[in-house]
Automatic annotation (TrEMBL):
Recorded superkingdom: Bacteria
Entry protein name: BrnA antitoxin family protein
InterPro entries reported for this sequence: DUF6290 (IPR046257), Ribbon_hlx_hlx (IPR010985)
Pfam family, one: DUF6290
Organism (species): Thiothrix winogradskyi
Length: 83
């Protein structure tokens, strides 16, 4: 596969310096960078996995909150103002 990318001047200059110091060909450097990124992404947990232990932890026990939210809020506000 052939890839073409555009780099801003600062990235291009940093890349040229790195390649010159290391003596690694550009294509090898890019292949290794892509390989590292792909390996890192595989090990990265999904947002769901990160928060799984929190979901439902503080549940109200009511399964109608999304349907009756306005009535429930009205009841709570009325009860608060009665006191």
């Amino acid at each position: 596969m052939t890839i073409s990318i555009r780099l801003d001047k600062s990235i291009e200059e940093a890349l040229r310096q790195r390649l010159q110091l290391s003596g690694i060909p550009l294509s090898e450097f890019v292949r290794e960078a892509i390989r590292e990124k792909l390996d890192k992404e595989v090990d990265k947990p999904s947002p769901y996995e990160l928060g799984k232990h929190l979901f439902g932890r503080n549940g109200s026990g009511r399964d109608d909150l999304s349907i009756n939210r306005k009535a429930i809020l009205r009841e709570k506000l009325n009860a608060k103002h009665r006191h």
